[in-house]
TrEMBL record:
UniProt key word Membrane: no
Protein name (database record): MurNAc-LAA domain-containing protein
Ranges for domain MurNAc-LAA: 360-470
InterPro entries recorded: AMIN_dom, Cu_amine_oxidase-like_N, Mao_N_sf, MurNAc-LAA_cat, N-acetylmuramoyl_amidase_3
Lineage of source species: Bacteria, Bacillati, Bacillota, Bacilli, Bacillales
PANTHER family given in the database record: N-ACETYLMURAMOYL-L-ALANINE AMIDASE, N-ACETYLMURAMOYL-L-ALANINE AMIDASE AMIC
A Pfam short name: Cu_amine_oxidN1
Highest taxon of source: Bacteria
Keyword Iron found: no
Length: 477
């Protein structure tokens, strides 16, 4: 479960930021790795790279900083990493690796680049128990180990920003709120937060360097403290904030939890707000990826219906709806990712079950331009029923999208035209952008089920969905 969650996290997390595929590319020459608040010194010409959409990081420098023993066998091209009773083994060029719980298959094999072995970030975090954040603006990979210091650490001194004729200007926090397992800090300039996990009591400390309070508590003095009302929020006992230091200014927010063990911390900025998302494995299934702002691209959220424990409807040959929606949605994703003006974000890319509120929240937090939920229909008792239906809810923008989508689908699929319908469906009702739910065809109808499961028909349907999205986006508004 936890693995699934983090799998999803990484696929989402880097979907928006890294678009090269098929060959190694430098994620960014300035990409930094911050481990537990300290920037790792990377050997010269060692870089974070992006291979087949996987962020690959140099393993040795990370492992050694975590006090793991790293052994390199040149002949066997094998890296082994040990700490206490934990052992991990990887081979350059092989996707098969050994983690703490036995054999694992990597998405991308470790590679030797300029004498440094790079491995998928996902593997590092899962096997070494690190939580990961990505600051897209500053190109920083943040790694937080579960290692627990006995006291809250003193803040490390920030870089000196004042120079001749220049006075220091701190970033200002104008609001802090907590809800939906998210800490939301409105801040006038982006800063890179330092996140620390501590125990006794379990808590997450968010330090904002070079930051003071603005509107919300203008005269806040060092050492005084404010608290948010978190009564009734499960697992959260207290959220407090303070001006931790005065000069350099530093704001500290502490979230006290009953249990930190399953919590993954994900940090991002969305429209001037720092969002620290506490993704509890199995509870909050979709960490929101970092938004790319002002790049002029339309954000399209594709939602393959059901998944994981929720099979959806069952077809005439016992096909589970979730196994129809995912492959089709992945085809849509593949097509959309080739569009230069579109960022595609998936609510799931594997067989997992995000709840409907989570799917909605993802689209709303991203302020997506279009939301498309993909489903298959079924009426078990009436296998003769067939055809395509497209749903929207109330909004005229959703209706416009539904009309276009339906026309394209009916045209290429040739299934019976069952029409565009207004439906009070949660993912349509609670999303805030043009949103449609597609019932592509009836899995309870033998002919339609066979068609829906075929590659050719899925390719056609995927192309129709993409064509419809593009037509909708290019409409005069
Ligand atoms: Zn469905």
């Amino acid at each position: 479960m936890k693995k699934m969650a983090s799998l999803l996290l990484f696929s989402l997390l880097f979907l928006l930021v890294l678009t090269d595929s098929g060959h190694a590319a430098t994620a960014s020459p300035q990409t930094k790795i911050i481990l537990d608040g300290h920037e790792l010194v990377l050997p010269s010409d060692v870089e974070v790279v992006n291979i087949n959409k996987n962020v690959m990081i140099p393993i040795r420098v990370v492992a050694e900083n975590l006090k793991f023993k790293v052994k390199w066998d040149q002949k066997k091209q094998n890296v082994s990493i040990e700490q206490n009773n934990k052992a991990i083994s990887l081979h350059v060029g092989r996707t098969e690796a050994y983690g703490q719980n036995g054999k694992v298959t990597l998405n991308t094999a470790p590679q030797l680049i300029k004498n440094t072995v790079v491995v998928p970030l996902r593997f590092v975090s899962e096997e070494m128990g690190l939580s990961v954040s990505w600051n897209n603006k500053d190109k920083i990979v943040g790694l937080t180990s579960a290692a627990v210091p006995s006291v809250e650490p003193a803040p490390s001194p920030p870089p000196v920003v004042s120079g001749p004729g220049q006075s220091t200007v701190w970033s200002k926090v104008n609001d802090i709120s907590f809800g939906n397992h998210q800490l939301v800090v409105s801040i006038d300039h982006e800063v890179t937060p330092r996140i620390t996990r501590l125990s006794n009591p379990d808590r997450i400390v968010v330090d904002l360097p070079d930051t003071t309070f603005g509107d919300m508590a203008p005269g806040m003095k060092q050492g005084t403290m404010g608290k948010l009302d978190v009564s009734g929020i499960p697992n959260v006992t207290e959220v407090r904030y303070s001006l931790f230091t005065n000069d350099p200014a530093q704001v500290r927010v502490v979230m006290e939890l009953n249990n930190l063990s399953d919590v993954q911390v994900n940090v991002q900025y969305v429209s001037g707000k720092l969002i620290v998302d506490l993704a509890v494995a199995g509870i909050i299934g979709i960490p929101v990826p970092p938004a790319q702002q002002d790049n002029g691209k339309s954000i399209i959220v594709i939602d393959p219906g059901h998944g994981g424990k929720d099979p959806g409807t069952i077809g005439i040959s016992k096909t589970q709806e979730k196994n129809f929606t995912l492959p089709l949605a992945l085809k849509v994703q593949a097509l959309l990712s080739q569009e230069p003006d579109i960022e595609v974000v998936m609510t799931r890319e594997t067989d997992v079950y995000p709840t409907r509120p989570e799917r909605v929240q993802l689209a709303n937090t991203l302020n997506a331009d279009v939301f498309v939920s993909i489903h298959g229909n079924s009426v078990e008792a009436s296998p003769q029923i067939s055809g395509t239906e497209t749903f929207y809810y109330k909004r005229s923008s959703s209706k416009a999208l539904a009309d276009i989508m339906h026309r394209h689908l009916v045209e290429v699929l040739g299934f019976k035209d069952r029409g565009v319908k207004n439906g009070n469906l949660e993912v349509l009702r609670d999303t805030t952008m043009p949103a449609v739910l597609l019932e592509i065809g009836f899995l309870s109808n033998l002919a339609e089920e066979q068609a829906m499961l075929s590659e050719t028909v899925q390719d056609k349907a995927a192309q129709a969905i993409v064509d419809a999205i593009k037509e909708f986006l290019h409409q005069p508004s």
